[in-house]
Amino acid sequence: MNRAEQIAALIREEMAGLPVVSWPLDAGLPLAVVGFGADEVIAAVDALVSTRVTMGERVRNFEAAWAGYCGRQHGVMVNSGSSANLVLLAALVETGQLQPGDEVLVPAVTWSTSLFPIAQCGLRPVMVDVSPHSLCIDPASARAARSERTRAVLAVHLLGQAAELDAFADLLVLEDACGAHGAVYHGRPVGSFGAGSAFSFFFSHHITTIEGGIVVTDDAHLADTMRSIRAHGWVRERQDRAEWAAASPEIDPRFLFVSAGYNLRPTEVQGAFGLHQLRRLPAWVAQRRANHAAWCAAFADIPGVTVFPEVEGTEHAGFAFPLLVDGERAAVMAELEAAGVETRPISGSNLVRQPAFPRVAGASAPVPLPVSDRVHEKGFFFGNSHAFRPEHGQRAAEIVRRWSHSCTP
Ligand SMILES: Cc1ncc(COP(=O)(O)O)c(C=O)c1O
User: Fold this and answer.
1) Which atom of ligand 1 is nearest to the CA of 82?
2) Architecture of the 282-407 domain
């Protein structure tokens, strides 16, 4: 064995059993289970030992692989899903596809950084209610919220459920698929519809690069613009860099800045992780889907409890298992927690009710948000994972059923 093989063998020994592929039934239900193992760590160590640690070939290879998985031409990897939303919106403004002041529809129930980057790019977020069937943006509420300045919709595929994209044919559609890896809408993967589509690879997601995110698109110019915005505004990673260099012959082409950019770059460690993680994804999504379907059946007849089965024409990717309860939410969450089932609110719940909302420049909430309010007051989720099985959720259902009966006079 050479030294590299010895190190790999040590890592395999140290990390035996990881990633966890089968979670013990009596060990509770955590919100997330470690989804990486020795393969990812060996690839990460290999990147570190090579000393090529800043964004390079591994990131490029992962970008191509992820774009291919989504059926898209280009992938631009960044350091988080939040940055993916930011770089996409900034590039749409820079390329003139959106103008400062344009209104962008966004569901009120989503993660905070679906909303904030819209305002950060000089656009106006318009908060829309979510559907009581999917928890994704409600087309009827979106119609009511539109004005003559509405140009785009940020359709969030919440917790693995695909949003109703067909309802927005006359708008620029952007997808926030940060929690929906492997979900399908009308026969095609989510992420294959938007002018640009964002994913997150945070630790607790379907697959992980520790922190990380990506935008996929078929628009070569948009992709180039995102490449410079993610890296200081630099021309360096752009495919059209020769044209830029020719237009500014007096500037050293290695230090030519063409966008008002940020630094949102990922590292080679993240690229190395991603390449291994992608191989695991199809089987893991299949397990999450099976869990989701079985858990919906197990909860279906519990009085006063609403769950969210896969919407017809879609494939649910089972990020987590959301519920709404008619009774006292804190009480049922406490029962579950006491039994080792970790719970938390649904994403940022109704973001209009968060203290940050008044600080979101230009944001408005012109329509009623009754479903978002109900999610805010009565919603929570527990985790789904490739390592869980139908029996895990069935146990949670028993706890909720007992609680529900105890509330019934
Ligand atoms: C819908 C949605 N958008 C954006 C994000 C942000 O992703 P990240 O945590 O990688 O910044 C998340 C995170 O879970 C999310 O669920």
Assistant:
1) 11
2) Alpha-Beta Complex (3.90)
